[in-house]
Amino acid sequence: MRTGVPDEDPAAGQPGAGSARGRTRGRLFDRLVRLPPFLWLAAFFLLPFAITLKISLSEPATAIPPYLPLLDWRGGLDGWSAFLEALNFDNYLTLAADPLYRDAALGSLTYAGVASLILVGLGTPLAYALARAPSRWQPLLVALVIVPFWTSFLIRVYAWIAILKPEGLLNLALRHLDLIDAPLTILNTDAAVIVGLVYAYLPFMVLPLYAVMNRLDPTLCEAAADLGASPSRVFWTVTVPLSLPGIAAGAGLCFIPMVGEFVIPDLLGGSETLMLGRVLWTEFFSNRDWPLASAVAVLILAIVIGPVVLFRDSLRAGEGEAP
Q1: Rg for the chain (alpha carbons), in Å?
Q2: Per-domain residue ranges of the chain
Q3: Taking the model in full, what pTM does it have?
Q4: What is the 3-state secondary structure (H, E, C) of 280-314?
Q5: How confident is the model at residue 17 (pLDDT cuts 50, 70, 90)?
Q6: Residue 1: per-residue pLDDT
Q7: Mean per-residue pLDDT for 199-207?
Q8: Residues 238 and 221: beta-carbon distance below 8 Å
Q9: pLDDT at position 65
Q10: Domain 98-216+249-315 CATH class label
Q11: Cβ 268 vs Cβ 196: under 8 Å
């Protein structure tokens, strides 16, 4: 017999039924939220890398596109078989045998490594000063660090040409101060490349390090000072060790793009400045050897994989130590 009481859901009275459905919906929502980043990486990293890797296994040709083989989709399995058999590792053997590419790789690592060390030395005290500044001044100081990004990167590099050339602003100032008798040769040297790299990537070093230092517990430094530690000892024994994740993150953010830098060594370095970015540009645009240029691009990626992994681990360590 039906009564006026509505039928009850059999699962409603079971303990945990609602929470189980909630967990299922939560997992589904979590997967949907994670899907767009994976699609983005697949479309704009994995697919271009697969195309670059395929071209690096091809041979140059006077055609459009300037490489062979090309996959004939209408050939079926025979077309795929012929396509795969035509691929080879000759371009990578060329990179290994030709000292030009070895020297370019070593040059890129040297310039990026030296510049990263200088950036750590300059960025650490600068970030510390920002983190210890009065709170009302910190937004303005951080904005001053970001201000260079408001100007075109290319224009800023060209400005350094006007500063470093023999008749430029630097030599003019040094001569007016009677510090030199003849103009210094700085432009088109290794020193000019290092100066350009340090200037261009200093904000990338300061900002992540400032973010870490700004979250440090100030009572730790106060406790060290109460125990008799001098300010310099507090900095080296308390602040710097706790800031290592930020230092690693900043160094990684700078080192990785500097390995493949092209604009700075091309404009500020001399003809003897060898970096992989310049070699890549020459092979791609001057020699029109797309397969060899693609092999250089894959080499750059292989070089920066290590710093990328270290950068990821430092971020995880920083998140784990964050209060």
Answers
A1: 28
A2: 61-95, 98-216+249-315
A3: 0.81
A4: HHHHHHHCCCHHHHHHHHHHHHHHHHHHHHHHHHH
A5: low
A6: 46
A7: 93
A8: yes
A9: 87
A10: mainly alpha
A11: yes
